[in-house]
Amino acid sequence: MTTSISKSVARAFEVLECFRDARTPFSATELRKRLGHPHSSVVAVLKNLTEIGYLSYDSIKRTYFPTQKLQRLGTWVQTALLGTSGFQDLADAVSLATNETASLITRSFIFNHIFYVKRSEHPLAHHLPVGIGITLCNSVVGRVVLSQMTDAEIERIYKYSVHWSRSQHTEAMRPFDEIEKAVNSVRKNGYLIGYDVWLKGIGAVAYALKAPFDGFPLAVSVSGPTARIKTMEKSIRKSVERCLSLAASSGKPGKAA
Q: Which residue of 9, 95, 148, 251 pairs with 217 in a disulfide if CB–CB is 3.0 to 4.6 A?
């Protein structure tokens, strides 16, 4: 019984992840082809999700799509995290201390989820939008987020990322050994510095944070033009570490152990 329930739950989330990645309605046949599961199993999952209100069904086009109920399901997480844990204050302090754009990032499947940005007042500040960003594997801060996961999870995310980049004809994934090396560096030092990894001309200094919830990897990143970040690299590191130390001593967010 337990195995059957676990398989059903896993397939339900796989279906929802397909909608999130493609952002388009799907028929049962299209989902079966994407997931490789038996048609009857996919139909059962779609029927159950529709019955409890998380999917809607277009009887004319015979397609499914997520509802507002699903959209609202996780909206409380960001509010709870920012409202009770002081991370927003930390990012604000980091931005002020470094005079650069500071952001808070977690994971959304294989992507960076940038859920808070404090933009610097500098005229050449990095414009970073809030929301789902690029893949974890192809960014400095993403690799800091990955460092807080198990090796098995990282390998699984990398495989999904390679498949996604090929299907979407986006930039190819960096070699796995490059990502593995970066992850090991973060686990040893607590931070990662990189230039032109995601976007040419942009540098980033990112630190791992200890989240208040299990399974919620977090990082704070300072980003800006490569030339300026390189010049100020040591100063930025000192400023960020000072902010993290002050936050930790006051019982607020600090570096991940």
A: 148
